[in-house]
Amino acid sequence: MSVHDDIVAVCKAARRAARVVAGASTGTKNRWLKDAAARLRAESPQLLEANRADVQRGREAGLSAALIDRLTLTDPRIESMAKGLEEVAQLPDPVGETITQWRRPNGLEISQVRVPLGVVGIIYESRPNVTADAAALCLKAGNAVLLRGGSEALATNTAIAAVLAEAAAACDLSPEAIQLVATADREAVKVLLRQDAYIDVIIPRGGESLIRAVTESSTIPVIQHYAGVCHTYVDEYADLAMAERICFNAKVQRPGVCNAMENMLVHAAVAPRFLPPMLRAFQEAGVEVRGCERTRRIVPGLTAATEEDWRTEYLDLILAVRVVDSLAEAVEFIATCGSGHSDAIVTDHLPHARAFAALVDSAAVYVNASTRFTDGYEFGFGAEVGISTNRLHARGPMGLRELTTYKYVVYGSGQIRQ
Question: Where would I find the H helices in 183-270?
Fold first, then answer.
């Protein structure tokens, strides 16, 4: 078969399986999750062997140390995948939930009921754990899932998907509900992104270049976030000790992720007291600080921030710092330079907290907390298939409910429209 025919066949199989999974009981789906977790543990030697082959090929291809780390499976990482499946089994099943209901004057009873999306396509890079996480969430929400991982993890992803499909077959779920695009041919992705007759939504997980390429090529709706240019604004009414803890965590705890702080805004009234110890702590942690002119007057010797710096997702120990004169200026700056991902204010002034929360148009807005909490696990979703900065359908961490839509169920007693 050609790559085109191969992909179309996989998509058709996923569409058939979606109808089976949509009608599966909560008990059946949970039984699959628990059985799949047990099988991952039991098959860990085989998974590690497949992964060693991928890692060796990655080293020979010159992948960076960071990418090799993301690619590498270990016994603790397999255990973490298994526990993730078991945690999803403990979560409430959203399918069939009545969101709202009402009765019309003519006696019609109308309910808005949560239902699966259908077939979810996920395109991702490097991390093999995404194969298990995405399948767990998609199937628990009643969907079939079509997975296309990075070519560097092909053997590992194939082995994990096979374990999950075997568990599905053993639990009276269609194994075709978990489909892996098992080819490194880039043409496969192009074909996949044109299968709008079979796939309902595409969720890309990876860098900005991947997400843009997927969005530009797809005839299927795409849920994406291009960048995580996240801000923390230290207000004039901030508890400065709290602000220092929050800002340090937001930048340093894990700088290479999309919810890490990239710009720190500080009110002019507290900047002379706050910036010297804060920036010293950053520099001692290895952070390169780039400052506006006012910041550099308070802390001499800093690199000057450029206009490009304010809009850059560094994903590294680099931070841009700006002094502002008001809450309104901070909000305007975030609207101009931010990416609508996660932004925070540190303040003890409730009116300022409420204004910031109302005016900042981001997927997650924080008051007196680190932006690092924008994560499905931290939000109590068990896991996530991605973080969306879209305004349509889903926003923020995407868990089970975000993998559903709704339909209207209408009960009558013979009513006709006049």
Answer: 187-192, 208-217, 240-252
